[in-house]
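Suppose a classmate hands you a notebook page containing two proteins, each written out with its sequence and a corresponding row of structure tokens. How would you begin to make sense of it? This section walks through that situation. The first entry is reproduced here exactly as it would appear on such a page.
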Amino acid sequence: MSRLSWRWWSRRSDKSADEAKPSSETFDGADRRQLLQAFSAIAGSGALAVMPQPAAAKDSSELPPPKRALTGRNEAGKSVFKSFDVTSKVVEIDSNPGLTFYELYMTEGVPQLTGLEPDPMLKGTKAFPGPGGTMFRLISYPPKRPEGYKPPAGVTFESALQEMSDKVPGMGDHFERGAPGMHTSGTIDYGVVVRGEMTLELDDGQKVHLRQGDCIVQNGTRHCWRNPLPEPCLMAFISVGGKRG
């Protein structure tokens, strides 16, 4: 199973990854690794081609995935922990190694807060909720692929989208065929970068670079996500189903 990267990212408060500058001082161990990451952010695919790929661009780490604490009530009406473990619905996309969905919880309509509700993820998952529904998920995105990267044998763009729809029902249908990565959903998405960094791209090439702790509010607009660095990125999303005017 692929594992999420829970590696702490070194960040300077006054500079983004795109503005990072290498130092002339001698670097050893972890410092050297951080310097290599900075070079890759500056030079892009050119630096990635020079760096040793197995060490520089891991799909995921060997660290354990995040746990989910699920609460409810017992027969006496007291609040209790119903579970504290990895969610029952973990989806790994084999056609895009390192892309993993941790499906945490979903509701439809007005939630019934009896505390006796079963874990909805035991029944499976879906791409996005309907109007008034909610979806809570973590997504681990693979690192930026090195120049010359090829997908697993036999994988095509269409087969990759089909796998996504098979494992997260309907997800592949939201992605555009003529602009890989671009997609649109009928939801408001609240997102936060938990680990790593991410670039959010909108129409006409508009982009914003997100670092650990940065947040987004996606108002049902056309967009795509691109990991700019040779490390996985973990993001958390809460999607709320809406209606287009």
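The notebook's second entry, a different protein, reads as follows.
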Amino acid sequence: MGLWQRIKRLFRAGTGAALDRVENPEMVLQQTIRDMRDRVPELNNSVAQVMATERLLLKNKENLEKQVVDLDSKIKAAIKMDRDDIATAYIGQLQQAQVDLERTGAQVEHATNASQQALKARDNYVLNMKKRTAEAMQLISASKQAKLQEQLAQTMETFDIGDDASTFNEMREKIDRRVAAAEAKLQLGSTSVDAQMQDIEREAMDIQLQDKLLSYKQEMGMLGSGSSNDKKQIAAGAEEESSSEEKSTDQLLAEAEELLKNAKS
């Protein structure tokens, strides 16, 4: 192999490799689709010209047919009028019109076949274009998916799970500490002096309600029907109980105030 051929081969190989690196399959396929779509109007114009020729020949054929009928009528009229000279002239025109009609009929047949073939070719091209477009869209979608997978692979190569795991553990410990602190504050709030005072006040309110209930029962005579001494003893006992309950209430209030002072101090 000569030196020049080796240089040419090396140049072609380098050019092909450079084109492979630069060439974008998605852009090439999209341009191919645009080129195919741009050819459709050109095909429509060509088909329209063929169909226009067919219609023009059909019009000429109709005119020649009318001319033949008209000349035949004129020939018959001239013969009736004993004008053989005029009839002869019309016969010459009729023969020429018949020749033109036969030739035009053949042209019409040929133009009709050409129109049908042109329409068929245009329809086949459009059908093939739609098929190729669908295939190109699938290839473009596959190319995009491949590109995403390549990017994902590159990301996974540079992804260090150790650093992120330590970050998750650190954040988990911080959240656990915050949850524990919140639960401790909630527990302290439920056992504070204010909560104890509320319990004492609630108990004192229950004692006062019981005393009031006992007083109503005494006034309504629902505590028994004994002697007057027994009633006095019951009343005295009730007074002692009420006084002792009042003392207990006072003691509870005093204890609550003491707890409040200790809490403030």
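A careful reader of the second entry would note: The chain has a mean pLDDT of 75.
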